[in-house]
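Per reviewer request, we include the raw input and output of the structure prediction for the construct analysed in the revised manuscript.
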Amino acid sequence: MIKDWPADRSVLIWGGLGFMGQHLAARLVGLGAKVTILCRGRGRYPVPFWAGQVGWFELPDGKDEAPIIRAAVAQADVIFDFAGSSGAVASNREPLLSLEANCRSQLILLDACEHAARRPHIVFASSWLVYGATARERIAETHPVAPQSMYAVHKLSIEHYLRIYARRGKITFSICRISNPYGFDPNPFFQGFKILNLFVRLALTGEPICLFGDGRQIRDFIYVADVVEALVQCGCSPGARDELFNISLGESHSLLEAATMLQELAGPVVIQFRPWPDEYSVVESGDYVADISKARNKLGFLPAFDLRAGLTDTLRLYRQNKLASATRTGPPQEREKGSVT
């Protein structure tokens, strides 16, 4: 675990008020990092406890974003990039909106990096969904990619954008293909693509957990605190430069197993089953088990929370903050197939 952030490396977090962005910002502030947040709609979010300890750039709605992004990037040594929209099914429904929200904004960021005073290091939050259909063998970073949604295609495109700019000497990068993060989310406007967060909130409010099919498809769930440690390591480790990493627990569980575990931890929970709707089944990637040996060997990445420990801590924080009532219900697998962002 990183004990101190390098004093000479300033940080920009694009998407610092999102789920992972808030956790990362809190961690970096605690490490003594000089942090700036780039976001939009700041007034729609609760004020985080660290808000007075960071700098802020807010993107304007309906106006040219490039000048703000250039100003935010100008003096950043490390950029943690969570920008973009989420949802595999939603991206297939509206591919042009997904393209605009994801790829265009990243090219604006990279253009800003090209004109910056220094060459920044970008830590990009990509997704395991770029691998496409998988089975129960461990998936390493060398596994063929075969995206099944526009969302995953756009994540993969951004990975290639980063490689192109790195070859031109404009940036360095770390690409983190993150699988199914979960944990306490302080945002009351709940983004349901975090499937286990949805399950937790349903369990705490006494609503049924709904699964498509038999619920036996397996996922490599990772607690947000472990994701944050991997991201921090990517931001300051020389071994992370121009590298691609699977960021996962390295241990998979079925959705049914996760829901059943919540029955044990949260009290009576009803589990229901529904047939797969066509638009959800077409983006279903099958079972996923990540090989995290590269992150372990190059970064020293060792997840600290297994699924039970992570769910226990998530339940504790939701109860402590009394935010479970903000749950938005709806089709669960659309939430599951969404982004890490």
